Amino acid sequence: MRINTNIASLTAQESAVNVNKNLSSSLEKLSTGLRINKASDDASGMAIADKLRTQASAVGQGIANANSANTFIQIADKAMAEQSNIMDIVKTKLMQASTSTTSTDGRTAILNDIKALLTQFDAISSSTNYNGTTLLDGSNFDFQIGEDSTNDKVTVTTSYAAKTASIDSGTGGSVGVASLSGMTTAASFTAAVALESMEAIDTALTNLNTVRAEFGSGQNQIESALRNMMTTKTNLKAAESIIRDVDYAAESANFNKQNIIAQAGTYAISQANAIQQNVLKLLQ
């Protein structure tokens, strides 16, 4: 028997060190909820999970951009809906002015009302904005809703500014007022002027609806992309979770196993040390 080197004790100690490392690793996973806490846990898995997380973050920002774009377009749409209501009222007033039962003074009052309404129409165009960006001035708008600069961009191209000077037909009629500007500057607002001015209103409504349709088409694209991105983000997060997150049932079982082995190792070390005491019997 040799006493200088206790091989049994050293073997048991080495095993105990390894088991304690496993036990610490298991505790770390259970406490963080992650299977991969450092690169050494799973180098390739960490690389894949990090890439999935980055992609999910980008998609998440795309969702935020799409939601902002929706709000942007809805503000414009509601403003144009009110402008359309103004045009409806103006046409009704023109109908009222075009009949012989309306007096000259009555037509003057109606014309003043129409001028006020068209002023409000233009005021809506000038004041409608999103975060300082004017929405109804005929500008084109680009909404980036994904990483691809070409395929993930929705562009709303507006044909007209939603204001009287832009959507005016400007063609001129038999009495020279087949336009909004011509109607409000007519020297004599007669029944004939009022009747022909209704053509200008119809043209203005058509052009206004063209602008509104451009925004509506863009919103449909954005909402479709938004639904797709939400599904994509969910699947990306699920894929990352499979790689990165810990399985509590499996890891709890592993922890209990390592804990039992650690206790058994401690007992083995004490027994290995006790064996050395047998040498004393040889000296008695």
In short:
This protein has about 280 residues and is mostly helical. Helix content is about 70%, strand content about 5%.
Q: Percent helix among the residues?
A: over 70%
> Could you tell me the radius of gyration in angstroms?
39 Å
List the uncertain runs: 170-178
Provide the structure class: mainly alpha
Give the CA-based shape.
Answer: rod-shaped
Return the string of H and E elements. HHHEEEEHHHHH
Our measurement of the CA-to-CA distance between the termini, rounded to an integer number of angstroms, reads: 15 Å
Mean pLDDT: 84
User: In which order are the strands of the major sheet placed?
Assistant: 1-2
Could you describe the largest sheet, including whether it forms a barrel? 2 strands, antiparallel
Q: What portion of residues belong to β-strands?
A: under 5%
What is the number of beta strands? 4
> Please, how many helices?
8
Write up what this structure looks like.
This protein is rod-shaped. The protein has a two-stranded antiparallel ribbon. The chain has a two-stranded antiparallel sheet with strand order 3-4. It has helices spanning 7-32, 43-97, 104-127, 164-167, 180-184, 191-244, 248-276, 279-283; strands spanning 129-130, 133-134, 141-144, 153-156. 71% of the residues lie in helices and 4% in strands. It is mainly α. It contains eight helices and four strands. The two termini are 15 Å apart.
